[in-house]
Design a protein that fits this description.
Elements: H1 2-23, H2 27-47, H3 51-75, H4 80-83, H5 91-111, H6 116-123, H7 134-142, H8 147-168, H9 180-185, H10 188-191
Helix pairs in contact: 1-2, 2-3
Length: 204
């Protein structure tokens, strides 16, 4: 009974916070609702026995991604009122695309049926939790059956990161930059001058 109560509490707060993410007018409030949604999703994963995924949700998504979103939104001086001016002009196109996606998802869920391989996998006996942990089982599947897909996803993220850096990199012609090759290849006689000063003679 207590597990059902916690499930409905976590699920209700998760759905309400997800609605708050897309309905909040302030972007900072949207990010805070997103953090709340991540915490409740982690609570549901804990109830399912997936402690590792719950920990990843809190550490990666809440501790890194959502906080980064919050810092970026708070530090950038974005005029959101200016951005919302053309929203109503493109609202019919957005609504049409949204209805098309909703129809596709509805058709997909109605026509979906589990494959025989999935049914055979469900029918296999589940190993004892005392013999193998949740993290061990997840790593064993990820780095054996899906190791190539895992590596390909890492390469896709690397290409996306390099592309983002390339698109945002700006070179200013008037800025002074360090030339390591020029510093190493210069000769001492070009930058150093030794003067012999006689005792008693100087500037003063």
């Amino acid at each position: 009974m207590i597990e059902a109560v916690f499930f409905y509490v976590f699920a209700t707060v998760l759905v309400l916070s997800a609605i708050g993410v897309i309905t909040a007018r302030n972007p900072v409030h949207s990010v805070l609702f997103l953090i709340l949604a991540f915490f409740n999703a982690a609570g549901l994963f804990v109830m399912l026995g997936a402690e590792f995924i719950a920990m990843i949700m809190v550490i990666v998504y809440v501790g890194a991604v959502a906080v980064l979103f919050l810092f970026v939104v708070m530090m950038l001086d974005i005029n959101f009122a200016e951005l919302r001016k053309g929203m109503m002009k493109h609202a019919p196109v957005g609504a049409l695309v949204g209805f098309a996606l909703l129809a596709e998802f509805t058709w997909m869920f109605k026509s979906w049926s589990p494959s025989s391989a999935a049914l055979n996998g469900v029918a296999q006996p589940i190993p004892d939790q005392a013999a193998i942990s949740n993290t061990h089982a997840l790593g064993e599947i990820l780095y054996t059956q899906y190791v190539y897909l895992f590596q390909i996803s890492g390469l896709i993220l690397l290409v996306a990161m390099v592309g983002a850096i390339t698109l945002t990199l700006r070179r200013r012609p008037d800025s002074r930059r360090q030339s390591v090759a020029g510093q190493i290849s210069r000769r001492p006689e070009d930058v150093l001058k030794v003067e012999k000063i006689t005792s008693g003679t100087g500037v003063f």
